[in-house]
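Hello forum,

I keep getting stuck at the same step: I have a sequence, I want structure tokens, and every attempt I make locally crashes halfway through. Rather than fight my setup again tonight, could one of you with a working pipeline run this one for me? It's a single chain of 159 residues.
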Amino acid sequence: MNKSCYEKISINYNTELNNLRIIYIKLKAMKQTETSNNNILAPVALTVLVVAGVGSLYFLFRTAQNQSSVFLLGLFVCWVISPYIGLLVANKISKSWARGKRTSLYWLMIFLAVCSLIAYSGVFIPAGTKPAFIFLVIPLISWFIIVIGFLMRKNSKKT
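Reply #2:
Ran it on my machine without issues. Output:
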């Protein structure tokens, strides 16, 4: 009777151990899937950001083709490209962040890049608006959104 009791305990122990192994393997597979999703999102976000930066400069130069002041054009180039550079710096800094926060940054990069390109293309510019207005306001709005995102990240760290 003692032997059969030990056999039952041993069988139950082995069954539970196997169940735990299966759960561990499934959790590990889920983690690898999440990591691979993030591994795909990061290069996509960086590519979209770089393409949008180049596209923004294209729209700027196309709009300013009659501009004679090289200094003013240089200021506009720096201002228009600055949010993209800021996001690239944020990407460098984010290597130590948690995966969820990095994912949020990648989506922010994609969102700002796409919205900026749409705005610079002139699709939604109201009639009578000076062309330079868009190239002044869109980087400012982008910087506000970037700063708000960083403040939210900082505040979420405390809680």
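The helical segments are 2-63, 70-93, 99-121, 131-158. If your local run keeps crashing, start a new thread with the error log.
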